[in-house]
Amino acid sequence: MKILTAAQTREADAYTIKAEGISSADLMERAAKAFTTWFENKFQPTKEVLVFCGPGNNGGDGLVVARLLHQRNYPVRVFTVGASEKASSDFKTNLKLLPDELKHFHIEEANQVPDLNEDLNVIDALFGTGLNRPVTGIFADVIEKLNSSAACITSIDIPSGLFSDSQTPYEGAIIKADYTISFELPKLAFLLPQHEEYIGEWHVIPIGLSEQFISETETNLYYTTYRDIHYKLKPRKKFSHKGTFGHTLLLCGGFGKMGAAVLAARACLRSGVGLLTLQVPSAGYTVLQTAVPEAMTLADKSRKHLSELPQDINKYNAIGVGPGLGTERITKTAIGQLLATSSHPLIIDADAINLIGSSDKLKAQLPKNRVIFTPHPKEFERLVGKSNNDYDRLRDMLEFCAEYGCYVVLKGSNTAIGTPEGKLYFNSTGNAGMATGGTGDVLTGIITALVAQHYTLEDACLLGVYVHGLAGDLASSKVGDIAMTASDVIDHLPQAFLHLQQSS
Ligand SMILES: NC(=O)C1=CN([C@@H]2O[C@H](COP(=O)(O)OP(=O)(O)OC[C@H]3O[C@@H](n4cnc5c(N)ncnc54)[C@H](O)[C@@H]3O)[C@@H](O)[C@H]2O)[C@@H](O)CC1
Ligand SMILES: [K+]
C-alpha cells in the first residue's frame, strides 16, 4: 500500500470530494463516523470522553466525533482551543451543529484544562495534516497538560504537533498518544522508531478516498501488507526438480559462532532452496553435518575463520555471506575476492557488512545491481554513516543504494527496504520478540534462498522480510515474545509460507 505525503492526502481529499459530488463536510462526517465506530468498539460509554479540538479540519473531525458519541450515549465534553476567527469553515459548521446539552468550553489559558485522571478518555483533535509549523504557545501548554495526565489519549489522524512526513522541529510540542487512528493510508511518521512514544498503537481506517487518485499518484514510499505480498509467491510446478530452485552457497560461521551458520542454513532450507552448500571454518564441519544434514558442507582450510572461497564460485546462483564470520584480516581478503570474482547476487550481512563498511576499497568493488545488504542499525552506521534523525537516515540509505546500485534492508520494527531506484518499503509484520540473537541470520538464509529461486532482488527482499516477520508473529502467538528464539522463527516458516500460499 502506498504512503502519501500530507500534501498528497489533501489532494486525495479534494479529488474525492469533486469526483463524488459531495461537500467537504460530507467527507468530514464520513471520516468522523469511521473514527467513532472504532472508538465504540474499543471503549465502553462508562468513562467520560473529553474532546480537544484545534481550529482546522482536524478540530472539525473532533466536533463531529463529539456529536456522534453524544448521540450514542457517551458522556462527552468538548474543549476548543485557538482563535475562532481563524477556524476552518467545516469547523464552524460543525460547531453550530453541537447539541445545546453537550458541554462545550473554550480554552484560552492552560489552567482552564480540567484535571485529567485515568478515568477519562481524551480525544486529541488539535491538529492533523495541516500542521505547518511547530506547536508553541497555548496549544503547547494544552498538549503538555494532556501528556502529563494519566488519561488515555486517542489521536484523530495523527498525534497533534507531529509532522506527518518530515522532521518535526525540536521546539514543537507533540501529543503522546496511546492510540492513533488515521484515515485511509498510513503516514511515514508512524513507521519511524524515533516516534514510538508519540504514536502508540496505530490503526488505519478506510474513509473511501478515491482509489483511482491513490493508484495514479506517484510515490516512492510503500507499506507492505499481506495484499502486496501474497501474490508474489511463485507456485512450484509439477515437473520442477531441485535444480529449478537454485543452488545457494552460504559463507557463514566462525569459532564460537557456528550457530549463526546453522540458523542461516536451516532458514534457507525452510525457504524452498533446491540445493544448499555451506563453507565453514573446519572446526565447524562436524557441527554443520550433524545439525543440518540436508546441506552439503565444505571445510575451510582455516580452523577458526573464513579464509578462502570454494572452487567454482559461479556455480552457485545466490551467495549469502556474513553471519558469525568475525572480522579477521584473512576473512576481509576472502570477501574482497568474492566481490571481485562472483557473477551472481550476494546477500551481505553481519561481519561482512562491518568489513565492507570499514573499507573504501571493498566498497568500490561492489558489483552494481547484484548486492543486498541486511544491516541492523549499528551495522548500518558502519556501512552508511551516522544520521541525525530517522528521516536523514532514510535519505542517506537511498543515496547509498543509488551510489552503489544495491538494496539495503535496514532491520528493526517496520524493517525498511531501500532500492537503487529510490523506492522505500516498510514492512508490516514482526514483533519485539524477534529482537533476539540469531533472527538476523535467519533473515539472511531466507532472502538468499529466495534469490536462488530466481525472485528479483526487490521481491526477494520484500517477500523475505515479510515472511520472516510473519513467522515471528506466528511464533509469538505460540511461545510469547519473551521466550521466543531464532529457532522458533525458523520452526514457524512452514506455517508462514503456507499462510501466503493458501490464499495466493
Ligand atoms: N480535507 C478534508 O476534506 C478532510 C480532512 N480531514 C481532517 O482534516 C485534517 C487536516 O485539516 P486541516 O488541513 O484544516 O489542518 P489542521 O486541522 O491540521 O490544522 C490547520 C490549522 O491550524 C493552523 N496551524 C497549523 N500549524 C499550527 C501551529 N503550529 N500552531 C497553531 N496553528 C497552526 C493552520 O493555520 C490552520 O488554521 C486531517 O488531518 C483530518 O483530520 C478529515 O476530516 C477527512 C476529510
Ligand atoms: K490530531
Name the structural class. Answer: alpha/beta
> Strand tally, please?
17
User: Major sheet: size, sense and barrel closure?
Assistant: 10 strands, mixed
Count the domains.
2
Annotation keywords:
UDP-N-acetylmuramoyl-L-alanine:D-glutamate ligase, 10-stranded mixed sheet, binds potassium ion, 19 helices, binds ligand NAX, 7-stranded parallel sheet, elongated, 504 residues, Rossmann fold, 2 domains, 17 strands, alpha/beta, single chain
Structural overview:
Strand 15 and strand 16 form a beta hairpin. The model has no long low-confidence stretch (mean pLDDT about 95). The chain has 19 helices and 17 strands. The two termini are about 15 Å apart. It folds into 2 domains: about 210 residues, YjeF N-terminal domain (Rossmann fold, 3-Layer(aba) Sandwich), CATH 3.40.50; about 260 residues, Ribokinase (UDP-N-acetylmuramoyl-L-alanine:D-glutamate ligase). With about 500 residues, it is an alpha/beta fold. The chain is about 40% helix and about 15% strand. It is elongated, with a radius of gyration of 26 Å. The site of ligand NAX has 27 residues, from helix 2 and helix 3.
